[in-house]
Every structure is written in structure tokens, then in C-alpha cells.
What does this fold into?
Amino acid sequence: MAEPKVKYDRQLRIWGEKGQAALEKASICLLNCGPTGSETLKNLVLGGVGSITIVDGSKVEVGDLGNNFMVDESSVGQSKAECVCAFLQELNDAVKAKFIEEHPEELIETNPSFFSQFTLVIATQLVEDSMVKLDRICREANIILIFARSYGLMGLVRISVKEHAVIESKPDHFLDDLRLNDPWPELRRFAETVDLNTTDAVGHKHTPYIIILVKMAEEWANTHGGKLPSTREEKKQFKDLIKSKMIMVDEENYKEAMEASFKVFSPQGIGPNLQKIINDSSSEVDSNSSDFWVMVAALKEFIASEGGGETPLEGSIPDMTSSTELYVNLQKTYQAKAEADFLVMEQRVKNLLKKINRDPASISKANIKSFCRNARKLAVCRYRLVEDEFNSPVQPELQKYLTDEDYGTAAGLYILLRAADRFAANYNKFPGQFDGEMDEDISRLKSTAVGLLNDLGCNGSAISEDLINEMCRYGASELHVVAAFVGGVASQEVIKLITRQFIPMSGTFIFNGIDHKSQLLLL
It folds into this structure.
């Protein structure tokens, strides 16, 4: 067997050993192993999740051979859960795989406590009634739930969990934490040891841009009543001031300083997202608070006192043109400040834990350190119960989506999928499922959709005839190409949720295979 580190080499570069360890500890339950479920689970088995349990009560039929690569002719008539389980086990022998030959709907009705043993449940191809019941069960047991569904050329993915806090949100673009707009005393003192007016040409072109900007900002503030550039004109003048210090045309470090000059003008203090988190009522901690909120409470105190309105320093600096000696010393200056901030935070966390009668050492140094490093990028996601969204979606939003040129199709498909479930509850079949009843099904689906819109307070909103015809044409079929895409999206969200890295999507994700569009509806 391949050494795990080698086996998962490429993905470790994305979510690191900590993320991989979380995956290997996770136990995942899949409900229904048609193509959508099988494709979702295939990605997770290849990624190395700890264990999987497949729940499906159906037998493999000839029709399954056309849309699911994980069953073949020899499987016809056998348990679908068993066949898919055996196939997935072959993909990765490090994963513990088992199956239960039972219909998920029956399990939801008769054995709700079954689900509490899992880290996360992936529910595929469930109709609305079962979604609502399962969501309540998982919410009470505090189990992460993700719904995935393929229906003809459309797909839906929806996460449901009371609260999901992310420390390592890993945004694509984020401003380096350099504090050029408000240098701390040691950084100022370090900048003072460097002379920008040196006649040594080599030294001049190897002064790191951080030092250039700290000194230039100070020089500017001294002649502008202690204020940094704020208007467009002032920012241009500031760049010109940097340019005037160049003694040769090819000084890369000065070009870098001019390009990075906006970092001097960036607003001081914390951003609106973080402000919202520290103002959240959960930051008033008690003995039931999660580690995350205890650290947020410590952060709130830190910002108000030692931080002087700022978060703990991250402590890393980007690459830049510089002499090795200056770069290393600059790095040390940043690391020392980050370490000092971390020690203050660590003490505050310990004091808070003591105050709420918890073991002061119960939050590890490594976790506090990671929290400090990512303090500016924290994220908290909360999801409505599916039942709440279904019964009372944010009505103005829904109305807006339905009439919006860009979102109209996604919203229409969302309503029609729900109407198809109502239709199935009334007529014991999905619209267009049987030949010869198409015209009747189209008018029935239309009146079901109109009834649903009225119930949701959107009377007057119309759904295009073409979309209604299309929905009936689908006949509730599960196409492999759509299932593979929906499974890819769902498994990516599962990985975000389990590793607690990157920000999972909010709202209800709709894939519209007609126009090849993916959109989120925030209802």
C-alpha cells in the first residue's frame, strides 16, 4: 500500500496535513447511490475519507447501466448499495466501506437516531418531505447535512448546519498584513536604522520596499499634520515622492514601493466582516461556547486593548527586492511582533476558559496560533432549516430572482423542482415519467407551480411555458453528465465542511444545464 503522504501528495498542498487528518477521521453516510450519490462519494473516497456507509434499498436495474459507471451487467438484480460499495472500496483500500440495504425514507421515519453516528450525511435524490424530516433530525443531533439532487438538466446542492465557523478561509486575494499605515514601535525603530539617502548605490537598490514606505509615510505625515494621503491627488503626489528618491532607472525596490503604495492608504482597524463576528451575541461566552467563540471573545478583548484597534499581526512578509541581511532582519521584526501578540492572546484565552470553568489548557497553542494568523479572515456561516426556506423563503428575494433576467431560469427551475415533488405526492409519479400523459402532466405541473407560488406569496409571478415543458420532458431522469457535475460540487463542499478550510457556499445552489449556469439563491 502506498505511503499515505505520497498517495495524497497533491491534495496535501491544498488543505495540508491538518485537513487530511480531519478527512481521515470523518465518517460519511450517503443516502441513495444513484449516479449523483455515487459520483459524490467517489470523489471523497479518492480523497481519503475515513469511512463511508451507503444506504439504498433498491436493486440494480438495466436502466442503471446507462447512467452509473459503478454498476455493470453482472450487477443487475443485485443490491445497488452492495455493488457501489464494492466498486468504491476498490478505489481506495484505506477507506472503511459498508452498506445498508434499506430505503433512506424508511430509515428517516423509523430510526432517526441512526444518523447521529456520522460526521456528515449526504442526502441525494430525496423529495421535499424527506428532506425536511432528515434536516430536523440532523439539526438536533448537530450533524452536518448536505443535499444533492439531479433532475434532468438541472441540479441542486444545499448545505444545512446550524453554524459552521472557519478559521482558515484561505481567500484568493487578501491584503498582506504589513501595518504600513500604522507601524508598531519596533518596525519604526528598524526603519530608522536604514538611510534612504545613502550614496551606496548597491545598498540603495536593495532596501526592501516595506522600509521605503514606512519612511516615506512618516515623511509625508510630518508635512501633512500627521495625516496619510487620502485623496486621489495626494496619493499621486505620494507616489511621485517615492519616485523622486530613485537614483537610478532600474531600481526594482522603488518600483515595488510605488506599486505597493496603496498599502499605506488602506484603512486602519478591522474590516466589516470581522466586526460583525466580534459583535455577534455568541462572543459573549459561557461554559457551552465552542473553542472558536472563546477565541473570538479573546480577540475582541485584544482588539480593544493591546491591539489598539488591530488584530494580532500575522507575522509573514511577501517576497521583495532586498539584501538578504535586511530581509531576514525585517522578517524577524514581523515574527517577533506576531509572537508577542500570540502570547497576549494565549493568556487571554486561558483567562476566559478559567472564567467559564473550563480547563485553561483545553485550547491548544497550535489552534490559538492558527487563529491569530487568520484573525482577519475568519468566517461564520449559518444556514436556515430547509423547512423554513421551503415554507417561508425571503419573499422579496424570491420575487426579485423570478423576474431577474439573469436569475429567472434558476429561480424557475427551483420552483419547478419543488412543484414536481408536490406533483409526485399528489399523483404518485413525477411529471412526464410515463409516456402518453405528457400534455396532461404539463397542465397539472403548471397549476401545481402556480399553487406553490401563491402559497409563497408570489402570486403574479409567472414561470415560462418552455421551462414547464422542459421539466416534464425530464421525467425525473438522472443524467450521468449532470450527476457528475452536481456530485463534484457537493463533494467539494463536503471537503470544505470537514476540513474547516475555505468558505462553503451559502444559500441554495442551482445548476442550470440548459444554459450551463451555476447560481446561488439566498432564500
In short: The radius of gyration is 28 Å. Residues 137 and 175 are 41 Å apart (CA to CA).
